[in-house]
Design goal:
By secondary structure, this protein is mainly alpha-helical. About 60% of the residues lie in helices and about 5% in strands.
Length: about 300
């Protein structure tokens, strides 16, 4: 007989569980009209399947935070992307709002009903159409440029996957390739026509882009903002700093050297602490989590993604 499925889900005592539910609602509901109901329309599929690698990866908030910071570090190394981000977003003036909107967009892309995701992506593309200008060196850029969109898509996909792989659960080559392929429908909708379809594709894209990447004080300003932003409650702020250091460590070594980020990384005990936090988060079932609500939209059990199947 084959191995039985193992349910790894975890529910905490009510006061703590309730606090985490409230924090999840606050994080994924920006103070504008971008609020999304992941439970509707009932029965409508997402861009990716519940059995996808993406659904497993994106349910972990620790991996998403670490991977998201890694992605932005890499994006800020590209001068055209850097100028677009720094001149046309609220990272400097209102980092929490920017983080909430970015996190919600990622959740909708993976867990939202297809029609919801398509509407959101169309809205983002309209916003991108108005983002254009010139870098300090005189190079023109546009947020709708397929080349830049492919690079941004690649950095995000890389960051999330590497964070999950390093701090939650190792993934084999086939799973990693499958994960990159799963992102193509969303990438195409965003206009990233040259998005990587496999890990080998991703490495080629990074190799092609590498000569353009450069050091900038904006990278260090971004990291300072992330350390100071009230993302976690004050008693957990030291953990927030560890997660940011973990994100720096996930940046490819050759790019860390180029950016001047090749200082001491996490120690062994710090790495173990991050892994313990990520493993805990991977078992915690929050009824407000987009992953859980999306499963219920598809008539699947709330703990569907928390069962390890042989």
């Amino acid at each position: 007989m084959g191995a039985a499925a193992e349910n790894t889900s975890l529910v905490l005592p009510w006061p703590l569980q309730g606090g985490l539910e409230a924090a999840t609602r606050a994080l994924l509901h920006p103070y504008d009209q971008w609020s999304v109901d992941f439970g509707k329309p009932v029965g409508e599929a997402a861009l990716a399947s519940p059995d996808s690698v993406s659904w497993r990866v994106f349910k972990n908030p620790i991996a998403l935070f670490i991977g998201g910071v890694t992605a932005v570090i890499m994006e800020l190394a590209e001068p055209r992307v850097r100028t677009g981000i720094w001149e046309h977003t609220t990272f400097r003036t209102d980092p929490m709002r920017r983080l909430r909107r970015t996190g919600l967009a990622a959740m909708v892309t993976v867990y939202g009903a297809r029609s919801t995701a398509e509407r959101m992506i169309a809205r983002v593309r309209r916003m991108h159409g108005a983002v254009a200008g010139t870098t300090p060196s005189g190079e023109s850029y546009s947020a709708a440029d397929p080349e830049l969109l492919a690079f941004v898509h690649a950095t995000a996909a890389y960051g999330f996957l590497e964070a999950y792989h390093a701090y939650v659960h190792p993934l084999g080559v086939a799973e990693r390739d499958r994960y990159y392929a799963e992102g193509i429908p969303a990438a195409t909708l965003y206009g990233a026509t040259g998005a990587a379809t496999s890990e080998a594709d991703l490495e080629r894209l990074f190799a092609t882009t590498a000569p353009r990447l450069e050091r900038s004080p904006i990278v260090f300003e971004f990291l300072d903002i992330m350390r100071a932003a009230p993302i976690m409650p004050l008693p957990l702020r030291p953990v927030q700093h560890l997660l940011i250091r973990a994100a720096v460590d996930l940046t490819p070594p050759w790019l860390r050297r180029k950016l001047g980020l090749d200082g001491p990384g996490l120690s062994a005990w710090q790495t173990a602490l991050v892994r313990q936090a990520a493993a805990f988060a991977d078992r915690l079932v929050l009824k407000t989590s987009p992953a859980v609500v999306a499963c219920q939209r598809l008539q699947l059990p709330a703990d569907y993604l928390y069962v390890r199947r042989p």
